[in-house]
């Protein structure tokens, strides 16, 4: 059985601690977000570079705040609320866009999990329309549209996830493993995105 992309992640969303009160550990959340951003390298096109850069740029805003006020930033929610109390919102705005980017990514992957015969590019397009597309300018929409059109076919996607060399094929064993790991990651990320979206709807989380 091959070592997959999921096995190489610094942190999986499935391993991000979520407290009984739905608080999310900041360091692990940011590590998992950075790890997920490497998925856009797996997709194999430079057209995805702006998508990856957008995610990582917002991660950096949260990391900068965490470094500036570590004792006030142990959880994602505390980081945002304490920043807002200081009459600042750089990291909180970064969190807003990071969650939107994660929502787009997980909706795309959910579509693939539920309908594995759908073209990956169609999964991304469908998810974009119901997530990031509602918040982007026309120009940014064109950038993302270009990236989604460059998505590989499903077989090539699995080859990349399984690190299969050129000319090789994905074994059924590896395909099953990838599907199980993908489903696990999607379920965990959906839960975290839902928690943070609900948090961001609260009056005290707005600026």
Automatic annotation (TrEMBL):
Protein's recorded name: Glycolipid transfer protein domain-containing protein
Pfam family, one: GLTP
SUPFAM superfamilies the UniProt entry points to: Glycolipid transfer protein, GLTP (SSF110004)
InterPro entries the UniProt entry points to: GLTP_sf (IPR036497), Glycolipid_transfer_prot_dom (IPR014830)
Recorded GO CC terms: cytosol; membrane
Protein's organism: Aspergillus avenaceus
Keyword terms of this UniProt record: Transport
Record has Transport as a keyword: yes
GO molecular function, one term: ceramide 1-phosphate binding
Lineage: Eukaryota, Fungi, Dikarya, Ascomycota, Pezizomycotina
Glycolipid transfer protein domain span: 24-162
Lineage top rank: taxon: Eukaryota
KW Cell wall biogenesis/degradation (keyword) present: no
